[in-house]
Each structure stands twice: as structure tokens, then as C-alpha cells.
Design goal:
The protein is an alpha/beta fold and 287 residues long. 54% of the residues lie in helices and 10% in strands. It has three domains: 105 residues, 3-Layer(aba) Sandwich (Glutaredoxin), CATH 3.40.30.10; 67 residues, Serine Threonine Protein Phosphatase 5, Tetratricopeptide repeat, CATH 1.25.40; 81 residues. The relative contact order is 0.09.
């Protein structure tokens, strides 16, 4: 097998963890092939090459359909080779047949954020929950002024401002970020927090939402607002539980808002074990 950790064989035993769950962090190309398939053998080396050159921005999972018929069946595979791109736990694109390299690269360009070779890491400002937010904000303002082209500092400042209630200034900072800077983890976290704060602007308070749900457990909008309020108050598990109810009850509610809310919540929650637990719960409801 490949010496590249981003290229691997997928089986029934590792598919959920290494493909579905992993796709919430990094998109995964799934190559359905068979040893007797000539076009599969033509396509596979090119897929290897493209994934290697992606520098970790995408993974490649190879599924031998002769050995993993259950996986192939769950995707409705009818011809080989078939390639499916999995992102955020679900198929988002793909193709059938041995396509040219240009087609594969065009597909990835639509869904995958390219990663540049890693530069020497610099420490990011870290803020614990018991640190004075105002002091941390002022310290970051100084850093942003000294390094105006370091966009991650601006995104970090925006996130702190949101935590302190500075919605207008934070929004202005995020709006000015260039496109490539908006794809950084810290910018995604800030934008997820902003989305949640905007979602409950004008929404009822916690007590009123609890009362509305007590009257009607199927009031999914109230559950969503309550989940957001829990999440922003630091009660991550309680918030994500409400989003799971949305996902379990009605996938079509507000354009799959339960799943979308969980994905944004994962960007805010600092506990990797808790995130992993709720990713597994979400995946079990999606497939």
C-alpha cells in the first residue's frame, strides 16, 4: 500500500471512521475499483498523483468492490471505476469511468481548499475562558496593527470580539478578509460563531424557548434557537443535543439545518473527545 498516509484501502471496518468521520476535517475521494477492471488500473495511478500533490488537502480511499460489496451496495455502485467525493459526512460529487486528470482536478477545485506547503509555525494567541477578554482583545489589536497582512490575527480578533459582544466590529473584520484567509480554521470558527449570534438575534430567551418546547416538542425552530443559546453559553453538549433532534426529526427542516448547525458547532467546541462523540452520532443518523 502507499507510503502516503492520505492514501489508504477502505474496508467495512474502517470506512465510518477513516472516510465518513474523517471527511468532516478533510474531503475524501473514494475510488471504487476491482482487480479485473482495466480502466480502474488506468485511473488509480493518476488519482494517487493528484492526491499526493494536494499536500493533505484531500484523501484517497480505495474500495475493492469484490471484497467490500456492502460498501459498494450502500453507494449504489453499478459500474467501475466510480469515484465519489465525501465531504462533511456525505457524497457531494463524483464521476464514473476513467476520466482525464483535468476532470479530476476540476472536481477537486470546486470542493477542496488547496493547502500550501507548511511554513514554520508561529504561535497563535490562545485565550482560555477565564482570561480577561478585554485585555486579550487589546493585546491582539496591537499585534494586528504591527502585522496588518497577517490575516489569521484579524480572524482571531474577530472571534474574541464576538465573544465579548462586539458584533459590528467583528463583522467588519471578517468581511475584509481575503478569500484564502476565510478558509483558515480560526476564520471558520469566527464565522460560525457570527452565524449563530445572528441566528438568535431577536429570538426568545431560554426560558421562553423551553416553555415553547414543553408545549410542542416538534417546534423545531424553538429547538434550534435553544440549541444555539446553549452552545454560545458554553453548554456544548446540550446545544448539540438539540441539533441532533432536528436532524433526527426532519432532514428537510430549513434546508437540513440540524446537520449544518452541528458542523458549525464542531468548529466552536474545544473538546475533541466531545466533538468526536457527536460526529459519530450525526454520522449514524446520516447513513
Amino acid at each position: 500500500m502507499s507510503d502516503n498516509p492520505n492514501i489508504f484501502h477502505a474496508t467495512q471496518d474502517n470506512f465510518e471512521a477513516d472516510v465518513l468521520e474523517a471527511s468532516f476535517q478533510t474531503p475524501v475521494l473514494v475510488d471504487f475499483w476491482a482487480p479485473w477492471c482495466g480502466p480502474c488500473k488506468q485511473l488509480m495511478p493518476m488519482l494517487d498523483k493528484v492526491v499526493r500533490e494536494a499536500n493533505g488537502a484531500v484523501k484517497l480511499a480505495k474500495v475493492n468492490t469484490d471484497e467490500e460489496m456492502a460498501i459498494a451496495g450502500s453507494f449504489g455502485i453499478r459500474s467501475l471505476p466510480t469515484v465519489v467525493l465525501i465531504k462533511d459526512g456525505r457524497p457531494v460529487d463524483g464521476f464514473m469511468g476513467a476520466q482525464p486528470e483535468s476532470v479530476v482536478r476540476a472536481l477537486l477545485a470546486k470542493h477542496v481548499v488547496a493547502k500550501a506547503p507548511e511554513a514554520e509555525p508561529e504561535p497563535e494567541p490562545m485565550v482560555e475562558s477565564d482570561v480577561d477578554l478585554e485585555a486579550a482583545i487589546e493585546a491582539l489589536r496591537v499585534k494586528v496593527k504591527a502585522e496588518p497582512k497577517k490575516h489569521e490575527l484579524q480572524a482571531e480578533l474577530a472571534d474574541l470580539l464576538l465573544r465579548a459582544g462586539g458584533l459590528e466590529e467583528a463583522t467588519a473584520l471578517l468581511d475584509k478578509l481575503p478569500g484564502d484567509a476565510q478558509s483558515s480554521d480560526v476564520a471558520k470558527r469566527a464565522m460560525a460563531r457570527l452565524n449563530f449570534m445572528q441566528a438568535i438575534d431577536g429570538a426568545p430567551g431560554e426560558a421562553e424557548l423551553q416553555a415553547a418546547i414543553a408545549r410542542d416538542g416538534a417546534n423545531l425552530l424553538a429547538r434550534y434557537h435553544l440549541g444555539v443559546r446553549f452552545l454560545l453559553a458554553g453548554e456544548a453538549a446540550a446545544g448539540m443535543d438539540q441539533f441532533l433532534v432536528l436532524l433526527r426529526t426532519d432532514r428537510k427542516f430549513n434546508e437540513d439545518q440540524g446537520r449544518r448547525a452541528l458542523i458549525d458547532a464542531f468548529k466552536l467546541v474545544d473538546d475533541p473527545d466531545l466533538v468526536g462523540e457527536y460526529r459519530r452520532k450525526m454520522t449514524s443518523l446520516l447513513f
